[in-house]
Each structure stands twice: as C-alpha cells, then as structure tokens.
Amino acid sequence: xxxxxxxxxxxxxxxxxxxxxxxxxxxxxxxxxxxxxxxxxxxxxxxxxxxxxxxxxxxxxxxxxxxxxxxxxxxxxxxxxxxxxxxxxxxxxxxxxxxxxxxxxxxxxxxxxxxxxxxxxxxxxxxxxxxxxxxxxxxxxxxxxxxxxxxxxxxxxxxxxxxxxxxxxxxxxxxxxxxxxxxxxxxxxxxxxxxxxxxxxxxxxxxxxxxxxxxxxxxxxxxxxxxxxxxxxxxxxxxxxxxxxxxxxxxxxxxxxxxxxxxxxxxxxxxxxxxxxxxxxxxxxxxxxxxxxxxxxxxxxxxxxxxxxxxxxxxxxxxxxxxxx
Length: 325
Prior knowledge:
Layout: H1 3-13, E1 18-20, H2 23-31, E2 38-40, E3 50-57, E4 60-66, E5 71-77, E6 81-89, E7 91-96, E8 99-104, E9 107-111, E10 116-121, E11 126-133, H3 134-145, E12 152-155, E13 158-160, H4 164-181, H5 189-202, E14 205-208, H6 211-215, H7 221-229, H8 240-246, H9 251-262, H10 266-284, H11 289-295, H12 301-312
Antiparallel strand pairs: 1-3, 2-5, 3-4, 4-11, 5-10, 6-9, 6-11, 7-8, 7-10, 9-13, 12-14
C-alpha cells in the first residue's frame, strides 16, 4: 500500500459522491463525466456496490471509484483525456489497443488517448484515479519538448509505484487531494504540472502528430466520422440509416465497423449519445421532458422516458425541476 494514496482515498471518500446498486445508474453517473460505456457483469455474482467521488480542478479531476463485484467496463476508445489509475485493493486487467496490461496494489496504469479500452475489474477493486484533459497534456508536452507543432504523447501503460517516479506521482496526488479538500487558495496547477513533468521525464513515451493518427490506424474512416457526427447534438434526431447515408456507406457496413472497432452497434451508440445529451438538457432545467425527447430524436415521449429510466435509473420527470409535460 502507498500511504499517500490511502490518505487521498480517505479524503476523497468524504466528498459527496454517487452511490448505487444499479448498473444503469452507475453507467449514467460516469458516462457524462468520462465517456459513453457499458458495464458487463454476471447476474449470478453479487450485486453492484458502485461508489464514485470526484474533485475537479483546472485541466484535471481526482476520483475515487469502486464497483464491488468483478465486472467488465467496455469503454471504447478514449478521445479527450488521459487516465492514471491506482488500485488500493484488487486490480484491473485491461485490453488496451492490441496489448494486455494489468495493475495491482503497488502498481498503476497510465492510459493515453487513442487506444480501445476494455477493463476487467477484479472483485473488491477500489481505485484512486487522476483524469488529465488531453489538450492540457498536449500543450504541456509541447512546452516540454519545444516542438513547433502540438503532438500527443502516448505513455508506456504500466507504472511501478515502488520506483522513484511512481512514488513521486503518488505523493503529488496525495498532496493535490489534501489541498483541494482544504479549499486552499493556492492553485492546484503546479502540482498537476509536477505530475506531468514526472511522466515526461521518467515514463517512456512516443508521440504522434495528433491522437487521431493513432485512432486512424485500423479504424475505418466511416466509424470515426459516425462518432464525430454525434458530437453535434443537431445530428442526434437522425436515424442510423440517415446517418449512414450521410457518410455514404450502407447501414450494414456501418454496423460491422462499429461493432468491430468500438464494441457498440450504431443504434446502441446513438442511443447512449441521445440520452447523454438529454441528461445535460434536463440538468439545466427550464425544459419539459417532451421537448427534450423531441430534441434528441424521440417522437414518443413515453418511449423516451422508458429508455431514459433504463439508462439512468430514474424517470426523467423525477429529476429536480422538471415536469411530465
């Protein structure tokens, strides 16, 4: 055990967080914070014991995450962030692009954008995690290397916390959590930058022109374009057939590519993006459930409400300040 991370976990656990025994609620809680994903777990295993606590700061967030039973997190491809993961108990086995990497107590993982991520969380795994925004890391890398063009560093994934670099990162995370919990007036950025400097100087890395170069590897352009289209909420009301036609591919070709390279069918991915945007609209308030349903592509508000409840664990009209109409 690393004392700094244990202290960080204790402090993070005191922050108001999300708790649930429902897989759909766990997915909903993390999809808007991280990215759309799926949880795969055996019905025969013990129920979920999901808990998540987070503190956000500029360019980064500090997280404590637990699921309880062994399960698989099918996260697809990281696009916009790096994730440093450190188990306090249990461990995680990850299909990371075309590699398999693992973490355990005393070690961690540095996951970079661009690779397909499918994680198997062992039973009773609890992790302290540091999310770093991709743009922030790329800008810091450019300053570090002195290169004229921004590039995306891709780090060696496995990190030994018994090595000097690992111990330093653990200390910095512990200090970062402590200062944020104490609401210190000092900016957290020097500590975040110190984490990055440690990674840059001591963790082997390669860099590419942009992370899209990595993602472009074997992934067909129509798969990347389909996902990019859905970053624009105005495309969410379209059907899969309409989106495929816009990309000039058949629905079958799109389905084959999406299932192979993301693990989701086009319909599954479109539904997640619709409901993810719907939750954001509902959280802002001042809009009816029926209007939200129409904006994200549901002609029938009742069908939207059923899908939203299955995804989020709650009827949309039961969220604060929203009406059924």
